[in-house]
User: Fold this.
Amino acid sequence: MRRIAANIVGQCLALFAQFITAARADWRGIEPVNRQRIYFANHTSNADLPIVWTVLPPALRRVTRPVAAADYWLKNKLRAFVGPEVFRAVLIDRRSEHQTEDPIAKIIAALDEGSSIIIFPEGGRNRTDDPLMPFKAGLYNIASNRPHIDLVPTWIDNINSVMPSGEVIPVPLGCTVIFGDPLHVEKDETKDGFLTRTSDALKALQPQQEGGS
Amino acid sequence: MIPDMPSDTSSSIFVLFGAACFLLIVATIGGELLRLRLSPKGAHPTVETYVTRLHSWWAMVFLLSIALLIGPAGVTLLFAFASFAALREFLTLTRKTKADHWALIAAFYLAFPLQFLFVWWGNSTLFSIFIPVYAFLILPILSVLRGAGNNFLSRISETQWGLMICVFCVSHVPALVTLDVEGSTGRSVLLIAFLVLVVQLGDLAEYYAGRRIGKKRIAKSVSPKTREGVACGAAFATLIGTLLFWISPFAPWEAALIAFTVYMIGVGGSLVLAAIKADRGVKNWGHLIPGQGGFVDQMDSVVFAAPLFYHLARYFGT
Assistant:
């Protein structure tokens, strides 16, 4: 019953997101085919997760789970339904004192079940003027544990104008989600080297355009 | 309010629909033959674009015909939807900051629906001044209250421009049905068919003639339109307008003159919107109409032509 409700709510959310943003996927570096992937994306707005989720074709959506913050998604009953059940999010706690299990182990377990994941490696919403904040170590820990899985840089463009942080009403504006070329941890690569390389690969996808921003 | 359509209006729409389908069938057969010869594996980009565009044209002909048959409610809804999609495309490319959030919300959730409500009510005063005066004054106030910031003047101007082009101008198309045209009542809905056919067919003629014989570009840096192409387009638009005088309240010479005038301002509109695209470094306004780009790309000339045509029709036709 809850499964069906979650499906319906998911469809409605996707429709609503489409209506507001006419979101479009730009499959620049990969094809939209069913293959296990770790999509890592920039994070500026609460609408980021629904938007990536929406542009994935339904067949991919079913096998893709976002990694999201437990402190946000368990705050009330509605969120606790949408996060874990509609998006089937892998919930991790950012506050180490609340962590009952290792977040990395939880993510690896989701990967080992065959799911693809969406992860925001900045570790929180970017409120600075830079395009990206420095990546947290999590992405490296996951990637070096499962080095065969494709890491796909995923740039979410313009969503911050749709719903700037702190605002609740979205403005209808076009959004594009750009998927880049897949990356892997290279042999003998240091953690910092890897995090810089992946961050640069993601930044490189940002469209250069006047205005907008 | 607006009287029901007499059946002769419906039969006029069916005649136009039949003619459009005939042209499209010829074009589709031609396209498929070209595809067989040049692009059997779907690899020839020009042929594939042509075929995709034809599919979009089929959809547009059907949607517009259905809307016209439904009458005022149908065309108001159809153009309200197109206006919303156009505004979304336009404001995606304008400069804005967090301070403009509430102004943008007001543009989308207040100015846009109210403008189409005024059209629907047939309140021509409110409909003519609401966006140019009230939205113009109130939206910047919202932005300044939310924190002003850099490039304030260009930001508020760009938002207002989006509203003028995508909502105010577009709303003049369904507003045509509120005109009380001479002769039988209810025929005003055919003015929309007149406007759209004249401008879009003129554009098509300009496009193909320009590709064949075009030499001198009229706005070199932004658009491939040529003098020769536009001359052919203008001639064709005038011809279509004259041939269509029977669906309009105009005398044949009036129809010819009006068709020529609205086509020419349409060309101007298409150049202006191309210049904005060039300035923002994009090729298309959007991606929702396969083969054509966005709604603004498709409607660029109709948008500029609509207010002028509305006033000309009001003067000559009522």
